[in-house]
Design brief:
It holds the Pfam family adh_short. The chain has 9 helices and 7 strands, in the order E-H-E-H-E-H-E-H-H-E-H-E-H-E-H-H. By secondary structure, it is an alpha/beta fold. Strand 5, helix 6 and strand 6 form a beta-alpha-beta unit. The radius of gyration is 18 Å and the shape is globular.
Length: about 260
């Protein structure tokens, strides 16, 4: 099997400039991955990301890195754009890594901005996720790794717009995993806590903050174990299990 032992030969990153996505690509390239597709809006940043991955392997054992135009907010284009990737050859792993945090304070007063967060994080992910899932099922193997968030486990007052979009994504990915059970396609939901990235720069860190590299390591370990759910860091599983059962009146008063 091409993606045996959690070491895919080919990788498609939806959200080609994602720091977590690129950290994961670097980690997998260090092992076995030799073909990488970065899907994202055409930009110098996307080109630079592709160039940085090509530099990771010596010429004799080079990695092929290509980019493909992809816009989460244009679901009508997903089937054609992503279909070109799968038409070029089997993809062992798809990493759904795109998303936006938004600005809760602003977005509450600007519904269209809030809708953009929801459309990117949920609607765009549903479209791209199903497109890739159908292609993986057709080829008979592969992993679909979906970057969710602990923010979706129990939505907080401070970021309920973002959190609700991740809650929807998380539920969708779990259901998709059940639907694909027995087809040869593995779906893994990854729930990081606060990750130090450009997206969170300038924001107060939450407890147990982590890094893109730590998330990438957890993804690699999850692939190896064929996990269905991965928490980063792992201790968040217990924390969120407790918070999930806190009465709502108490929960809304917690400094979260």
């Amino acid at each position: 099997m091409k993606d045996a032992f959690g070491a895919p030969q080919s990788l498609l990153v939806l959200g080609g400039t994602s720091e977590i996505g690129l950290a994961t690509a670097r980690r997998l390239i260090a092992r076995r991955t030799r073909t990488v597709w970065l899907a994202g809006r055409p930009s110098p940043a996307l080109d630079a990301a592709a160039a940085s991955l090509r530099e990771l392997r010596p010429e004799a054992d080079a990695v092929t890195v290509r980019t493909v135009p992809f816009d989460a907010l244009d679901p009508a284009s997903h089937e054609e754009a992503l279909g070109k990737v799968f038409a070029d050859g089997d993809i062992d792993m798809v990493l759904l890594a795109f998303g936006v945090l938004g600005d809760q304070g602003r977005d509450e007063g600007a519904p269209l901005d809030a809708v953009r967060v929801a459309q990117t994080n949920y609607t765009g992910a549903v479209s791209a996720g199903l497109t890739c899932a159908n292609a993986l099922r057709a080829q008979g193997h592969g992993s679909l790794v979906v970057l969710s968030s602990v923010a979706g486990e129990r939505v907080r007052r401070a970021n309920f717009i973002y959190g609700s979009s991740k809650a929807g994504l998380d539920a969708f990915a779990q259901g998709l995993g059940d639907a694909l059970h027995g087809t040869g396609v593995h779906v893994m939901v990854v729930r990081p806590g606060f990750v130090r990235t450009r997206m969170t720069a300038g924001r107060a860190e939450a407890p147990m903050a982590t890094t893109p590299e730590a998330v990438a390591h957890a993804i690699e370990q999850g692939l190896w174990r064929r996990s269905e759910t991965v928490w980063v860091p792992g201790a968040l599983r217990l924390v969120m299990s407790a918070l999930r059962h806190v009465p709502r009146g108490v929960f809304r008063r917690l400094p979260l």
